[in-house]
Amino acid sequence: MDKTVLVTGCAGFIATHTIKTLINEGFNVIGVDRKPEPDNYAGGKYYQMDVSAPELEQIFKDNKIDYVIHLAAVPSVSESVKNPQKDCKDNYYATVNVCYFSKLYGVKKIVFSSTAAVYANPKYLPVDEEHPTGFISPYAITKMASENFIKYCGIDYIIFRYSNVYGEGQDCTGEAGVVAIFFDLMSRDKDVRIFGNGEQTRDFIYVADIAKANVCALTSDIKNEVINVSTNTKTTVNELFETIKRTLGYKKMPIYCPPREGDIEHSILDNKKFLELFNYTPAVSLKEGIGHMANNSILLKTTY
Ligand SMILES: NC(=O)c1ccc[n+]([C@@H]2O[C@H](COP(=O)([O-])OP(=O)(O)OC[C@H]3O[C@@H](n4cnc5c(N)ncnc54)[C@H](O)[C@@H]3O)[C@@H](O)[C@H]2O)c1
User: Fold this and answer.
1) Cα dihedral angle (74, 79, 85, 88), rounded to 10 degrees?
2) Which of 151, 211, 265, 278 is disulfide-compatible with 21, CB 3.0–4.6 A?
3) Residues 6+ positions from 154 with CB-CB distance below 8 Å
4) Contacting residues for 253 by C-beta, under 8 A, at least 6 apart
5) Closest residue to atom 39 of ligand 1, CA basis
6) Phi first, then psi: what are they for 82, rounded to 5°?
7) How confident is the model at residue 3 (pLDDT cuts 50, 70, 90)?
């Protein structure tokens, strides 16, 4: 296949897996990220640049880009609350810049990584795409504004609203996903804290399924749709704890702490629309995904 994809945020967690899938499918990949090129970058040309900068245009001038997968963002609710101006620049202005040049240089389709956060506190479960949107953080506002700009600017698009993504390579520092945090702590035999009674539910999706969805969005004729990408499966935080505990042979009990302000109690995304349009079901169960994480971390430990 002679098609070129620009992946923004290409040094990040989801991008790393998406790029591997793109390459397996025969796409040429160009990456842009403000971080230096990581050792495990598998794509072609790498541009170290802020995607909100006017210099972004040079990438479009230098390359014939067919598709853009826009993953660059700071995916942190608490960071967005602390510094909404920065959130606006990184998550909204950057998207406007990417879309502007994509349109100017004839990109055929943009795939955008939105989030379940745009549904705020769900009024019903599972949350389908017709559910009203809302906001309890600047992050949700800038993601929603980005969705609207993409629709406005006139390029064909797929907007994916991911549920909770987990897998190898996810940052376990800061406000990382709960899977990455639990996995890291248990593999180092450290104490694990659970906020609330642990009966809050999440819809965890393995990163390889997200990568596959991103690539399906390019190869399919489906366009101009907003679609949840999830497993439509509810897992309590206690069940997650037990799954990782069994996989890693961790022996300690969790430490229960008061619930955190602003945490959503239950979150499950309906994935019926995704299954109907793409004829593809996220394939990796939580147990299998955690198993992959354990196998790959053993591999890393024995390699180095
Ligand atoms: N991880 C999840 O559970 C989840 C859920 C829903 C949506 N998303 C979205 O998916 C996308 C990827 O998330 P991730 O988990 O891989 O995050 P990540 O932090 O691992 O990757 C994001 C990458 O974008 C880069 N970046 C950020 N702002 C940039 C800018 N202005 N210019 C250039 N590079 C920039 C960062 O350096 C980083 O490498 C994000 O848009 C996020 O909002 C993630």
Assistant:
1) 30
2) 211
3) 103
4) none
5) 12
6) -70, -35
7) very high
Tokens of 186: 């248990």
CA 30 to chain centre: 19
CATH architecture of the domain 4-303 equals: 3-Layer(aba) Sandwich (3.40)
User: What is the tens place of the pLDDT at every residue in 9-19?
Assistant: 999 999 999 99
Q: Decide: residue 240, CB within 10 A, 0-12 exposed, 13-18 middle, 19+ buried.
A: buried
What are the residue ranges of helices labelled H in the chain?
13-24, 56-62, 77-82, 84-87, 94-104, 138-153, 178-187, 207-219, 237-248, 272-278, 286-303
> Cα–Cα distance between 81 and 200 in angstroms, integer?
23
The Cα 217–Cα 214 span in angstroms is 5
Say how many Å lie between the CA of residue 139 and the centre of ligand 1: 12
Quick one: pLDDT at residue 176? 58
Tens of pLDDT, residue by residue over 285-301, are 999 999 999 998 755 54
Is 280 catalytic? The answer is: no
Query: Residues 41-87: pLDDT tens digits?
Result: 999 999 999 999 999 999 999 999 999 999 999 988 888 989 999 99
Give the residue, out of 6, 8, 10, 13, with the most ligand 1 atoms within 8 A of its beta carbon, to mutate for a pocket test: 13
